[in-house]
Amino acid sequence: MEARTAETHRPRKRRWIQPATQPTKTAAESRQVSMSEAQIVVRWLNEARGSAHAHVLEIRKQLEDFHAGLARFREVDAKNPVTVALLTKTRPVPDAAYTAKYQREYRRLEKEITAINKALKRYAFRPAIGYVITSDARGGGLVPDVDKRTFKLSFGDWELVGADAALALVRLFLKGELQRVQLCEMCKQRWVDRAKSHYKFCSGECREGYYAEAPGYAKRKADNQARYREHKKRAEVAGLA
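-> structure tokens emitted (241 positions)
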């Protein structure tokens, strides 16, 4: 009876990938279980295929374009006579041409928001929590509603669906971290989580290939090899002394 109870409360693997906690494990082991929003998106874009992949990719592009549009709108708003008047505590100077430009930019942003929400409308979420008694694993958050036809991406003990990646993109956008999901600077085919500025490549091969094409690479590599051999020779001599 106790075993059946544990199974009853066992959460579906894919549901708790993002907020999962494993208090009985070490910190390093817990990091292996959970994934950041950027890692979820990168994993999905690199491994999913078909319309499910294309839809998530389109949402990323829409959010990226909207982010750029917001920056342009802020530049326009900074010159808005009303905004300037509020900052300088003066009376606003009417400017019909500027007002028309401001309204055009504002309406464009509204259309982009509508398009993004329309793309996200295909996904349905609900709040839920889960607990596995045997391993003391807990999780909770917004859970996508999926059917049997939904494309699932499996890796290890976990599963992802397009809704997971879409929600992760929205969260990245809201935190101002959408730029973390970028294409590899070498192959331009696979995606990378640029958690740090030097994370630019999807593999060691792409990293080597990128720097191999840089000017002076052959000479720098030869110099490094020469210094390595010299250092090794000195260490051997010191060891015999």
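Confidence is low (pLDDT under 50) at residues 1-33.
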